[in-house]
Amino acid sequence: MKMSRICKCFAGLMLCIGLLAAAHSMAAQKKPPKKYTDSVTTKSGDKITFDMVIIPAGEFIMGSPKSEADRQKHEGPQHKVKLASFYLCTTETTIALFRAYYQETVTAKKDFVEVETATKDEEQIKAKVDAISGPTPVYGDMTMGYDDNHPAIGMTWHNAMTFCKWLSKKTGKQYRLPTEAEWEYACRAGSKDKFYFGNDAKQLKEYAWYVDSSDGETCPVAKKKPNAWGLYDMLGNVREWVSDYYSPTAYQEAAKKNPAVNPKGPKKTKEDQVHVARGGDYYSEAKELRCAARSFEQPFWRDGDPQIPKSKWWLPEMDIIGFRVALSLKKNDQKSGN
Amino acid sequence: MAQANKSEKSSVSTRREFLKTSTAATAAAMTGALGLQRGAFAAGSDIIKVGMIGCGGRNTGAAAQAMAADKGVRLYAMCDIFMDRVMAKRNTLKKQKKDQVVVSDEFCFAGFDGYKHVIEASDAVVIANAAKFHPLHALTAIKAGKHVFVEKPHGIDPAGIKLLREASQLAKQKGLSLVSGLHSRYHAGYAETVKRIHDGAIGDIIAVEENFLRGPYGVIPRKEGLTELQWQCSTQYHFRWLSGDDVPQSLVHNLDRTSWALQNQHALKCHGLGGRSSMTEPIYGDVFDHHSVVYEFPNGVMVYAFCRTTNGCYNNSSSVVLGSKGKANITRAVITGENKWRWQGRCNPYQVEHDVLFNAIRTGKPVNNGDYMARSTMITIMGQISCYTGKEVTWDQINKSDFYYPPKPEDCRDDMDPPVKAGPNGSYPVPRPGFTKMI
Q1: What does the alpha-carbon distance between residue B51 and residue A181 come to, in Å, rounded to a whole number?
Q2: A113 in helix, strand or coil?
Q3: Which of B174, B163, B209 is nearest to B304 (CA)?
Q4: What does the alpha-carbon distance between residue B55 and residue B77 come to, in Å, rounded to a whole number?
Q5: Which of A307, A313, A314, A319 to probe by mutation at the B interface, max B CB count within 10 Å?
Q6: What pLDDT is stored for residue A8 in this prediction?
Q7: Enclosing H/E stretch for A176
Q8: Cα R_g (chain B), whole angstroms
Q9: ipTM for the assembly
Q10: Distance in angstroms (rounded) separating the CA atoms of residues B78 and B104
C-alpha cells in the first residue's frame, strides 16, 4: 500500500513534469498564426472586422537602384534592412472602422484649447491613461461622401496615430502604424522590381487604383489583386501614413548601418517636420506607384483649412491620404516567427 | 496661390503638382496679370496697411492669406473683444510672416469699439468676427475709404443686410473693393461645374438638395472671471444675437451655390422646421441644433436645405443640383447623367479671394461681391426666421422687415448686460415655433 502510494505519487509527479515539458515545448514550437481576423464592436452594436496577415522576418534592399526609371534622389542609396516579423492589415483602414473611432472619441473641445494642453496630453498618453482625447468635430463630413468600404481619408498623421491608440484599447492588442521600412518590405513581398508584380506598368490596372484605372475617386478596398503576401491596395487608392518623419537624407543615414535593423526613420529636427506617406493614390501616375517611391505631407494638404492654427486632426477635402495598421509580434512569438 | 504652389515641388512629382499649373492658370485668369500695374496704389507707395477686425482662427488665416497674396501687405492693426487673443494671434502671425507683421502695441485694440481704430489705421481691413458685426464694420470701413474682405455670413438679420447693401453701393461709387468669404465663388472647380450647369449639362434644373450635417461647433470651458457678456462673446457661435444661428452660418455656403447655379436668383418664399434636441446643455447657448428649409425659387425650382450640428449622427456636406438630364454635385465638381464630367484639379479658394482683392487694389480695378453677398445671406436669414417662427416667409416680407437681434451692433458696449440671460437652471430661452414672432 505504502509503496504503491509512493509509486503513484512518483508516477504522478513524473507525469506532471512530462506534461509541463510537453506544454513548454509546444509553446516554443507553436507558431503565431499566419493571419487572423480582429474586430471591434461599435456602441450601436455593429461588429466591424479587419484581417491581419503575418509579414515574415527577413532582410531586403530598401530604395531604388540608380538605374530605375523615374527614380528620385531620396529613394537612395539602396541599403540593406533587417526586420523582425510583424502583422499588417490586408486593407487600408476603412471608413466604417474610422467612423466608429470618430464617434466614440470625438470631443467638442476647440483646437486652440488643445494646443494649450498638448503637452499635458502627450504626458497622459505616455502614462497610458485610459481616456483617449479624440478628434474635434470635422468641419463638414468625415466620409466626404464615400461609402463605408472605401478607405478612411483626410486625417492628419496625429489623428491616424490616435486611431491606433483607440484600436489598441478596443482590442487589447498594440496596433500602430508600420514604419517606412516595414511598409516597403511588405509592399515588395520579396520583389526587387519596380512594382511588386514586376516591371510592366501595363499590369498596374490589375493591382491598383491609380490615374489610369480609377474614376478620379477612391475605390472600395480589396477589389484589385493583392500582392504575394496577401496585401491589397499597397499601391494606389490612398497614400498611407507610416510612422516615420520624412527626411530627404533618411536613407543616407540608414545606409551607415549594414544592415539597418528595424529602423524607425530620422529623428525630428524641426518644429514642423512632416511625416512620410507611401504608395501613391487613386490619381497618381504609374511612376508614383513604384514600390520605392516616397512621398510626404505637402503644404497644400492643409489648403482646405482656412484657419490658423490649422487643425491638429483634419486635412479637409484631402481624399488622397489614409493609412493601414500594423502590429508587432509578442517577444516569444518573434523567435518562432522567424 | 500660384506662387506658393510652385515653390512646394516635392521630389515625387505628383499629378496634383502638375495640376497646379492649370489651377495657377485659372487663378491668373481670374485675377488678371498680377503686378503689371504696380504702383497704381497709394501714389507710388508699395505698402498696403491691413487691419484685422476679429482675432479668431479664421481671421488669423485670412490675415496670413492677405500677406501671402501681396508682398507689400503689412499687418498694421488688430482688434478683438479680448486683448489676450490679439496678443496671441500677433505672436502666431509674427512667427509665420516676420517681415510683414508690424503691429505695434498702440495698434492693438480690444472691446466692441476696437474696429473704429483699426479702420482708421488701415488701407484695407479683413473682417471675421461675430457675424452680427459684419455689415456695420464693412460699411464703416467703406465710408472711411478702405477696402474690405469680410467673412460669411454677411449679416444675421434684415437690418444688417440693409447696411451691407449700403456698403456695397457706396463701395461702387467710391471705387473700393468689397470681397466676400463665400469661397465657392473663388473655387475653380465649383466655377466650372456651375458654368456647365448654366450651359445646360444637366438640362432644366428641377430641384436642389443642400446638406451641411456635421458635429457641433467647438465649445470652450467657461474661464473663471469672465462676465456673462464676455462668456457669450467668447463662444459666439452658440448665441443667436451674435452668430445668427446655423442657417446663416453653415447653409450660407450651400445656398450661395444654389443661387449661383440658378443664375443668381433669390428665393421667392420658404418654410422651415428647426429645433434643439441633442446639444441641449447650457454650454450650447441658445441656438438650434437642426434645421430643414424648403425654398421655392422662380420657375417652380424647389430647394431642400438641411443643416445639423450634432455628434453621433449621419454627416453629409454636399450641394446637389437635380436636372432633367442629370445631376451636378458642385462641391465634388462632378456631373452625372447624359453629360458625365468631372473636374480634375485642385484649388485653394481661400487664397484666391485674397489674390483677387489685393490685385484689385494694386491695379485700381475694384472687385465688388456685394450683390451676391447680400442676396445669399438674406436667403439664409429668411430660412432661419421661418424655422424660429414656424411661419412661411416670403422674399418681399424679409426685405420689408427691419428686424434685428437687439442690441444694434453700433449700440454694443463693453459694460452692457447681454441681451439674453440664462434661466434658473442655467439654460437660455430658445425660440418656440408657432409662438415666437420676429417679422
Answers
A1: 49
A2: helix
A3: B209
A4: 11
A5: A307
A6: 53
A7: strand A175-176
A8: 22
A9: 0.81
A10: 9
pTM of the model: 0.85
The pLDDT score that the predictor gives to residue A73 is 97
Among residues B424, B80, B415, the alpha carbon closest in space to that of B228 is found at: B415
Q: Which of A113, A298, A305 sits opposite B220 (nearest CB)?
A: A113
Contact assessment for residue B251 and residue B202, using Cβ atoms and an 8 Å cutoff: no
For residue A54, give the H/E element and its range: strand A47-55
Mean pLDDT lowest for which of A248-252, B3-7, B350-354? B3-7
For residue B50, list its beta bridge partners: B75, B124
Q: Does A303 touch chain B (CB under 8 A)?
A: yes
pLDDT band at B60 (very low <50, low <70, confident <90, very high): very high
The DSSP letter of residue A44 is T
To test the contact with chain B by mutation, choose from A138, A300, A318 the residue with the greatest count of B C-beta atoms within 10 A, namely A300
C-beta of residue B218 within 8 angstroms of C-beta of residue B338: no
Burial of A86: CB neighbours in 10 Å, binned 0-12, 13-18, 19+? buried
- Of the CA atoms within 13 Å of residue A165, those in its CB half-sphere come to 23
Give the integer Cα–Cα distance in Å for B302 and B254. Answer: 14
Q: Which of residues 29-68 of A touch B (CB under 8 A)?
A: none
Give the neighbor-by-neighbor strand order of the sheet with B48-53: B108-110, B73-80, B48-53, B124-127, B147-150, B178-180
Query: If pLDDT is split at 50, 70 and 90, which confidence band does B230 have?
Result: very high
- How far apart are alpha carbons B73 and B147 in whole angstroms? 13
Tell me which residues of chain A have a pLDDT lower than 50.
1-3, 7, 22-23, 25-27, 111-129, 337-338
Which residues on chain A are in Cβ contact (under 8 Å) with B92? Answer: 308-309
Residues whose CB is less than 8 angstroms from the CB of residue B196 and which lie 6 or more positions away in sequence, other chains included: B202, B328, B335, B339, B341
**How far is C-alpha B73 from the geometric centre of its chain's CA atoms?**
22
Report pLDDT for A15. Answer: 53
Residue A310 has which C-alpha cell? 490649422
Q: How many residues does chain A have?
A: 338
Question: What mean pLDDT value characterizes chain B?
Answer: 90
**What is the DSSP-derived secondary structure letter of residue B295?**
E
| DSSP one-letter code for A221 | T
Q: How far apart are the C-alpha atoms of B133 and B154, rounded to whole Å?
A: 9
User: CB count, 10 Å around CB of A29?
Assistant: 8
In the prediction, which pLDDT does A114 show?
Answer: 40
What is the strand order of the sheet A239-245 is part of? A294-296, A275-278, A239-245, A321-323
pLDDT of residue A68: 96
Rounded to the nearest 5°, which phi and psi values hold at B222? -70, 115
Q: Are A238 and A259 in contact (CB under 8 A)?
A: no
> Do the chains contact at B11 and A113, CB–CB below 8 Å?
no
Grid cell 460699411 in the structure block, residue: B139
The residue among A60, A70, A72 whose CA lies nearest residue A228 is A60
Q: Can you tell me the distance from the alpha carbon of A98 to that of A36, in angstroms, rounded to the nearest whole number?
A: 20
Amino acid identity for residue A156 in this structure: T
- For A231-246, the pLDDT digits (tens) are 999 999 999 999 999 9
